[in-house]
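queue> pop job 88
queue> type: inverse folding (structure -> sequence)
queue> payload:
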Protein backbone atom coordinates (compact mmCIF):
# COMPACT_ATOMS: atom_id res chain seq x y z
CA UNK A 1 0.00 0.00 0.00
CA UNK A 2 2.65 2.62 0.91
CA UNK A 3 4.44 1.90 -2.39
CA UNK A 4 1.22 2.40 -4.30
CA UNK A 5 0.68 5.74 -2.59
CA UNK A 6 4.26 6.78 -3.36
CA UNK A 7 3.83 5.81 -7.01
CA UNK A 8 0.55 7.72 -7.14
CA UNK A 9 2.24 10.80 -5.69
CA UNK A 10 5.12 10.51 -8.15
CA UNK A 11 2.68 10.17 -11.04
CA UNK A 12 0.83 13.22 -9.79
CA UNK A 13 4.08 15.23 -9.58
CA UNK A 14 5.16 14.07 -13.03
CA UNK A 15 1.82 15.17 -14.45
CA UNK A 16 2.10 18.50 -12.69
CA UNK A 17 5.62 19.07 -14.05
CA UNK A 18 4.48 18.14 -17.54
CA UNK A 19 1.60 20.60 -17.30
CA UNK A 20 3.95 23.33 -16.04
CA UNK A 21 6.27 22.62 -18.96
CA UNK A 22 3.41 22.99 -21.45
CA UNK A 23 2.31 26.24 -19.85
CA UNK A 24 5.83 27.62 -19.92
CA UNK A 25 6.10 26.68 -23.59
CA UNK A 26 2.87 28.55 -24.32
CA UNK A 27 4.09 31.56 -22.36
CA UNK A 28 7.35 31.48 -24.31
CA UNK A 29 5.48 31.46 -27.60
CA UNK A 30 3.29 34.36 -26.53
CA UNK A 31 6.33 36.35 -25.40
CA UNK A 32 7.93 35.76 -28.78
CA UNK A 33 4.79 37.15 -30.47
CA UNK A 34 4.83 40.19 -28.17
CA UNK A 35 8.52 40.78 -28.93
CA UNK A 36 7.76 40.66 -32.65
CA UNK A 37 4.96 43.17 -32.29
CA UNK A 38 7.13 45.48 -30.20
CA UNK A 39 9.91 45.29 -32.78
CA UNK A 40 7.40 46.24 -35.48
CA UNK A 41 6.14 49.17 -33.42
CA UNK A 42 9.69 50.31 -32.72
CA UNK A 43 10.50 50.20 -36.42
CA UNK A 44 7.34 52.13 -37.26
CA UNK A 45 8.10 54.78 -34.64
CA UNK A 46 11.68 55.10 -35.87
CA UNK A 47 10.44 55.73 -39.40
CA UNK A 48 7.90 58.28 -38.22
CA UNK A 49 10.48 60.14 -36.14
CA UNK A 50 12.83 60.20 -39.12
CA UNK A 51 10.09 61.79 -41.24
CA UNK A 52 9.27 64.34 -38.53
CA UNK A 53 12.94 65.16 -38.12
CA UNK A 54 13.31 65.67 -41.88
CA UNK A 55 10.29 68.00 -41.88
CA UNK A 56 11.77 70.06 -39.05
CA UNK A 57 15.08 70.27 -40.89
CA UNK A 58 13.30 71.56 -44.00
CA UNK A 59 11.36 74.08 -41.89
CA UNK A 60 14.56 75.23 -40.19
CA UNK A 61 16.26 75.66 -43.56
CA UNK A 62 13.30 77.64 -44.86
CA UNK A 63 13.32 79.92 -41.82
CA UNK A 64 17.08 80.46 -42.08
CA UNK A 65 16.69 81.46 -45.73
CA UNK A 66 13.85 83.91 -44.99
CA UNK A 67 15.25 85.46 -41.81
CA UNK A 68 17.61 87.95 -43.49
CA UNK A 69 14.81 89.09 -45.80
CA UNK A 70 12.41 89.63 -42.93
CA UNK A 71 15.04 91.46 -40.88
CA UNK A 72 15.90 93.65 -43.87
CA UNK A 73 12.27 94.47 -44.44
CA UNK A 74 11.74 95.29 -40.77
CA UNK A 75 14.82 97.50 -40.63
CA UNK A 76 13.76 99.27 -43.83
CA UNK A 77 10.30 99.95 -42.49
CA UNK A 78 11.76 101.12 -39.20
CA UNK A 79 14.17 103.45 -41.01
CA UNK A 80 11.34 104.85 -43.14
CA UNK A 81 9.35 105.45 -39.98
CA UNK A 82 12.24 107.36 -38.44
CA UNK A 83 12.69 109.47 -41.56
CA UNK A 84 9.04 110.57 -41.50
CA UNK A 85 9.26 112.01 -38.00
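queue> result:
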Amino acid sequence: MPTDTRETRMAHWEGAYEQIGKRLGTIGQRLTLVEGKLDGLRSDLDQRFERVEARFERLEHSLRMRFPWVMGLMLSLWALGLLRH
